[in-house]
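Milestone M4 deliverable, item 7.
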Amino acid sequence: GRIPLYILIAGAIGDTDRAAWELLMQTLPFKDKIIFVGFQTDILRLIGQCDIGIVPSVVAEAGGPLALLEYMLIGCAIIASDNGSEPEYLRRGIDGILCPPTDYEAWRKAIGYLATNDKERATFTKNAQHHFQETFSYPIFLQKIHNLYEHIITK
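Output delivered:
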């Protein structure tokens, strides 16, 4: 059967930050339901089994957060870093929660909040999926590119 709550932490994290994350996970009452998978090239295989997706990027200069978009597409409540491009994709308090990268107390509170609040988790999931479809899906992306070129050509 399906685990009632499954939290996936994905992404490449340096040794210092990983140690802090592992310590953080040990302080949570549902630590046995949190899995740190590190960097994965086939994250979609795992996301469909999750209730909460966590994107703890500490690199402000990172490119577009692919895992974040994949969580939105598949449907997970999301907690992400509030640095880099994450805030351009995830709307704070609408699609998920944004936390400072190394404020582990903020992450602990956010994880605990979503893990114990089914209604808010479901709302974030629904909002994130809808936002993805309306803003980032392939047909929308193609239309935006088409409109851009059309604007350039007609100038």
